[in-house]
Amino acid sequence: MRLVMASANPHKVEEISEILVGYRIDERPKGLADVVENAETLEGNAHLKATAVCNFSGDAAVADDTGLEVDYLNGLPGVRSARFAGEDATDIDNLMKLLKALEGVPEDQRTARFRTVAMVVFPDKSVLRAQGVAEGFIARLPRGEKGFGYDSIFIPVEGDGRSFAEMASEEKQLISHRGRAFRQLALSLSAKF
Predict the structure, then answer these.
(1) Catalytic residue among 65, 108, 124, 151
(2) What pLDDT does residue 190 have?
(3) How many domains are there within the chain?
(4) Cis amide prior to 77 (ω within 30 degrees)
(5) What are phi and psi of 46, to 5 degrees?
(6) Which of 7, 22, 93, 139 is most buried (CB neighbours < 10 A)?
(7) What share of the chain is helix, strand, coil (3-state, %, to 5)?
(8) Residue 23 pLDDT class (50, 70, 90 cuts)
(9) Which residues form the domain of 98?
């Protein structure tokens, strides 16, 4: 089955392609304008992106949206995780803003979770969706060279004390929010087809 990727983020595309083995994953169509992610929820943003790509390509489109929810910050950055430090913020800008906001916060109050909503929108407008969550806490300093976004400061509860950025891709996929969401989405796709 052919799915067209909504994300242009090469890191996300690689992670998603590793999970959706057996599906032909085509890259985001060239010429498609950026989708304004202005929904109030992760599910809303995933739907906006998948629908735009499906309408543009005429094929089933796969999209996701992910947020890092920090309990001490009442769930922020959440749906604004990619734009936490501003519309044109880099991963480093966002990460540094978050670390600054948590300066001096004790370990037991640095709890957080990554949440991913994954979705496929089909040309007939039907939708499959799945969600994955990884519980953890925010480290005081970045650790590790792998991954992207907030991976270097997120220490998953189910891990061994390493950040996502210190794990091999295969290790991270087993316990990550995105891995869980897309494995669930793959099961839903298998059941449908």
Answers:
(1) 65
(2) 86
(3) 1
(4) yes
(5) -60, -40
(6) 139
(7) 40, 25, 40
(8) confident
(9) 2-192
Q: Is 65 a catalytic residue?
A: yes
Q: Which amino acid is at 80?
A: R
pLDDT band at residue 12 under the 50/70/90 scheme: confident
Q: Using CA atoms, how far apart are residues 62 and 182, in angstroms rounded to an integer?
A: 10
Q: What is the mean pLDDT of residues 15-39?
A: 87
Question: Residue 156 in contact with residue 132, Cβ under 8 Å?
Answer: no
> Closest Cα partner for 182 from 69, 91, 66?
66
Q: Cα separation of 166 and 149, whole Å?
A: 13
Q: Give the type of residue at 162.
A: R
Nearest of 66, 35, 65 to residue 53 by alpha carbon: 35
Check whether 71 has a pLDDT greater than 90.
yes
The structure tokens 């990619």 sit at 82
Indicate which CATH number applies to the domain containing 30: 3.90.950.10
Q: Say if CB 177 and CB 114 are below 8 A apart.
A: yes
42 exposure class (CB count in 10 Å sphere: 0-12, 13-18, 19+): buried
Query: Quick one: pLDDT at residue 152?
Result: 97
